[in-house]
Amino acid sequence: xxxxxxxxxxxxxxxxxxxxxxxxxxxWTQAYVAQEVAVSIDAxxxxxxxxxxPYQATIHKLCGLFQMTPEExxxxxxxxxxxxxxxxxxxxDTACPPLQSTQVIWTPNEAEKKAAWExxxxxxxxxxxxxLVDDEGILREALSSMYSLFHTARxxxxxxxxxxxxxRPGSSQSLSYLVVRMxxxxxxxxxxxxxxxxxxxxxxxxxxxxITQYEQQWERYAELRQQITMVRNGLTGYANVFAxxxxxxSLIPDIPELRPCEEAVLQRS
Length: 269
Fold this sequence. Notes:
Layout: H1 18-26, H2 30-37, H3 41-48, H4 56-66, H5 97-102, H6 110-124, H7 139-160, H8 175-202, H9 211-217, H10 221-246
């Protein structure tokens, strides 16, 4: 809206990053890319200069926008990457956005505890939280389960209403805010890109070939599995937070140590 999409001319740079090259190849402006992935223009500039890497949720959006892999866009972290090399994005553009950036502490009310428990149960009993073992599971089931979370989460938010949407003094966070951020930054980028791609491939399946077998023959099968695993990690992070808000112990087996965005987000009364 009011943002120039195409650049007038292209001036190659000797040390041009893959992301900058891909953008200029399409004739897009930095402002257009920033608008499409909901970050500041400065964040795009920092990425293209190689000074910072986007957060994982934003990498998903960029891959969807360019229809390229993180490797093709030069967005893979180097082995010695440290938190100081993280993105120049605004705080709300992180994989666990509201928690990692502000570390807000609050005491949940009873409605928040109950709603957090309902959302937590939905997460831990669905395919998205369960890891996909090699050669097992159907990708369509995983995507469908993730998609159904939108309907379930919306129903829970409507059920509890404004009671769980009230932010605390000095903070823009609430349980409703966390749920919406989980849906929009973790699930939506994956589903927007992969649901139509998988559907188009499924429609070419011969009746004599099984669903699982045909999925495994897809040239993008391994790539989608990897993306689902990455999203699973993000959902697990949010599930851990919802468990804390609900005041329950984790029900997810073999969970790694909590990352900064999952730690101490509330103060128990």
